[in-house]
Amino acid sequence: MLDAFGKCRPRPDQLVAIGSETYPYYRPVTERLDDGEVVIGGRAVLMAGSNDYLALSDDPRLKAAATEALDRHGTGNSGSRLLNGSLPLHEELEAELAAFLGMEAAMVVSTGYQANLTLSALFAHQDVVYADRLVHASLMDAVRLGHARLVRYRHNDLAHLERLLKAADPRDGRLVLSEGMFSTDGDLCDVPGIARLARRHDARLILDCAHDAGLLGVGGRGAAEQLGRQAAVDVQTLTFSKCFGTLGGAVAGPRHVIDYLRHHARPAVFTASLPAGCAAAALAALRIIRTEPERRRRALAAGERLRAELAALGFGTAPGIAPAMAIPVGDTALCARMWKELLDEGVYTNAMVPPGVPEGKALIRLSVTAAHTDAQLTRIVDACTAAGRRLGLIAATQDGTAP
Ligand code: PMP
């Protein structure tokens, strides 16, 4: 008989073997040092793999707000928002988020992943979801959990999306799903073009702004604001685990839609609510996002510099504006080696391998924050140069030796 756990045994062809020297996952961060360094494996390394773009997760104001809320409400709410787990803090955060985003209402949930899963309640039998081919796994999981038919359009390809929308059955509900800023390459959704198509074809536009809310646009509202089309977005999801420096997520949109989600979105109804400390930290972060635009300017400038220098070195780093970017590697085992080489150089990055990325498209994801100094950015570039040359990802020095 087939052993149902057979699938869990390591496969001989597994390239990134658990426990091996180059295994890049689940490495505990044992300590945070003051200057953006962290201790991993007993060694201080520079963190270049965190989504804390605005460097708020260690901000004293967030910590003070979280500590006070924790003292008042305890470490958990022991129930769902629907029943016993709602706090005034959740409601305050929802009201401020909705006002910030220019939406009628918002619903706070416990993670960004969950915020996207709640969308499943909008994906009913008679609906078609048109999703950008590169949207995040959590959005694909929302589609799986819902009942709508899925149609994928080529990344940011307006002509392709229009062809697909034109072929729609007029009786079907239509929803277009994209990310505001795509998390791996840091490029933006063509919000003006996609919003135009959505309007022309009676489709609702839903944007996951996990990476851009707090970072882009004059007011920090995200990619749609940056591109001048904030009002064209029907529903926006976000996470507090990136620019907001804590944990949690939210869905914002028209009041009747949010009220519907509050009662019908199983991933929100059947799970415990966001602990007070995280809600308070998110609220403090939102207020900082509104009042300290220089933080996003610093993060974007750091990203711009690193991206330009990696591209100039010949890594094939794609253009974009985000503080997150990729070094394309291709082969999974080579990607794990590159990750280890960078770690040995004292820089912590993220190795993204299939199924997180398509087969043969393994990459190193680097991200920088408002707190990275010029000297630290130079260290990251130097580490990439040395590691990239050793592994032949970029050309060696003129005399053919590694530096
Ligand atoms: N959407 C996108 C685009 C993401 O990159 C992520 C997390 N990496 C999420 C949603 C989920 O957010 P969280 O980690 O807060 O659950």
* Strand order, sheet with most strands: 4-10-9-8-7-5-6
N-to-C SSE series? Answer: EEEHHEHEHEHEHEHEEHHHHEHEEEH
**Total DSSP helices:** 13
Low-confidence stretches: none
> Between the first and last Cα atoms, what is the distance in angstroms?
56 Å
> Which hetero ligands occur in this complex?
4'-deoxy-4'-aminopyridoxal-5'-phosphate
Domain Aminotransferase class I/classII large: 49-383
Protein name: 8-amino-7-oxononanoate synthase
EC number: 2.3.1.47
Keywords: Aminotransferase, Transferase
Descriptive key words:
single chain; 403 residues; alpha/beta; Aspartate Aminotransferase, domain 1; Aspartate Aminotransferase, domain 2; 2 domains; seven-stranded mixed beta sheet; four-stranded mixed beta sheet; 13 helices; 37% helix; globular; binds 4'-deoxy-4'-aminopyridoxal-5'-phosphate
Task: Tell me about this structure.
The protein is of the alpha/beta class. The protein has two domains: 10-47 and 293-390, Aspartate Aminotransferase, domain 1 (Alpha-Beta Complex), CATH 3.90.1150; 60-291, 3-Layer(aba) Sandwich (Aspartate Aminotransferase, domain 2). It is built from 13 helices and 14 strands. A seven-stranded mixed β-sheet has the order 4-10-9-8-7-5-6, sandwiched between helices. Strand 1 (29-32) and strand 2 form a beta hairpin. Helix 5 (158-166) packs parallel to helix 6 and helix 11 (293-313) runs parallel beside helix 13 (374-390). The longest helix has 21 residues, at 293-313. It is globular, with a radius of gyration of 22 Å. The model has no long low-confidence stretch (mean pLDDT 94). Residues 111-113, 116, 136, 138, 179, 183, 208, 210-211, 239, 241, 249 line the site of 4'-deoxy-4'-aminopyridoxal-5'-phosphate. GO terms for molecular function: 8-amino-7-oxononanoate synthase activity; pyridoxal phosphate binding; transaminase activity. This is 8-amino-7-oxononanoate synthase. Pfam families: Aminotran_1_2 (PF00155).
